[in-house]
C-alpha cells in the first residue's frame, strides 16, 4: 500500500464556481466585458509559434511588469495565476509544520495551498467581516513562517486601511513573510486601500501578489505575479512548475498591460455598478458591507445556501458559503439588474 500524506486525505478540494449553460454567471469575480481588444488581436497572430515551448523565464513579461511597477526584474516572479504564485511562495518558506496565519474567511486556496506545502493553516476569525489584524498578530508564534493579508478581502470585499496595515507589518517579527494579496487592486479606491507596493516596496519581508484574472480579464489564460525582495523572488522562481505560464498567456499579459486605459475605464464601470447595486440592496433591507472589490458580500448566515438556490432557479449563479454568506460578482448592468430582481423576490 502506497503511503499517502495524511494531511491531504483530510483536505477538502478547492470548489470552483458552477457552470450552467445559459446562466448569468456572478460567481467567480471575473471581468464581464470579455478580452481587452488589444489582447484578442495579439492572440490571433500567435498560433504559429505554439509548437515550441514558451520562454521559461518569461523575460519580456517580467520586463513589462518591472517597468509598470518601477522596479528591477529581479523583484518580480510570474506563475500560472496568482494561485500558483501563492503556492510557490508557500513552498519557499514552509518547512513541515510551519504555521501560516490568515483571516477566515478569506480566499479559500490559502488553507489548501498551505497544507499542500506541508504547513499548518491558522485561521483567525474576521471581526465585522474585516480581517482582525491585532488578533492575527497575536496568532503569530515562533513557528509562523507566513501571514496572508487579502486586501480587499475575498469573499467579504472589505479593506484594510493604510494605518492599520502599516502598524501590523511593522509589529511582526522580521522572520515572518507577509504576503499582501491584491487580486482586486484595480477596483479599490486608493484613498481607502493602500498600494502595498508603494507602502512596503523595500521591506525584505513583504511580498505583494497580483493577478491578470480580474481587471485584466484573463482568468482563462492563467497569469499572476508577485513583487518582493530579490532574495525571496530568486527562491520563489525555483518552485515554479517549468513552463507553467504558456506562450499565449505571456503574450496576452504583455498586450493587456498596454491596455491600461481600457482596464481603468472598465473598472470604473464596475465601481459604478458596485455603488448602484449596493444602494439598491440596502433599500431592499440587505446588510451589505462596503465593498472595495468587484463583488459584494451578503452575510445571510443560515439563509445563504437557500438564497443561492433561489438565484440558480432563476438562471443566476452566485457563490454561497453555507452558514456564512453569499458572494455576488458585479457583472454587466443587465446581469446585475437580473440579480437585483431575484434579490427583491427573495425578500418579498
Ligand atoms: N487571490 C484572491 C484574493 C482571489 O480571490 C483569487 C481568485 N479568486 C486569487 C488570488 C487567484 O486568482 P488567479 O489564480 O486566477 O490569479
The CATH superfamily of the largest domain is Type I PLP-dependent aspartate aminotransferase-like (Major domain)
- What's the CATH architecture of the largest domain? 3-Layer(aba) Sandwich
What is the 3D shape? globular
Integer count of domains:
2
CATH topology group of the largest domain: Aspartate Aminotransferase, domain 2
Q: What is the first-to-last residue Cα distance? A: 57 Å
Low-pLDDT residue intervals, each spanning 5 or more residues: none
Largest sheet data: 7 strands, mixed
Q: Work out the helix count.
A: 13
List each distinct ligand once: 4'-deoxy-4'-aminopyridoxal-5'-phosphate
| Spatial strand sequence of the major β-sheet | 2-8-7-6-5-3-4
Output the radius of gyration: 20 Å
CATH class descriptor name of the largest domain: Alpha Beta
Describe the 3D structure.
This protein is α/β, with parallel strands linked by helices. It folds into 2 domains: 106 residues, Aspartate Aminotransferase, domain 1 (Alpha-Beta Complex), CATH 3.90.1150; 221 residues, 3-Layer(aba) Sandwich (Aspartate Aminotransferase, domain 2). Helix content is 39%, strand content 16%. The protein contains 13 helices and 12 strands. A 7-stranded mixed β-sheet has the order 2-8-7-6-5-3-4, with helices on both faces. A 3-stranded antiparallel β-sheet has the order 9-12-11, covered by helices on one side. α7 links the parallel β5 and β6. The longest helix is centred in the C-terminal third of the chain and has 24 residues. The mean pLDDT is 95. It binds 4'-deoxy-4'-aminopyridoxal-5'-phosphate. The site of 4'-deoxy-4'-aminopyridoxal-5'-phosphate has 13 residues, from α4.
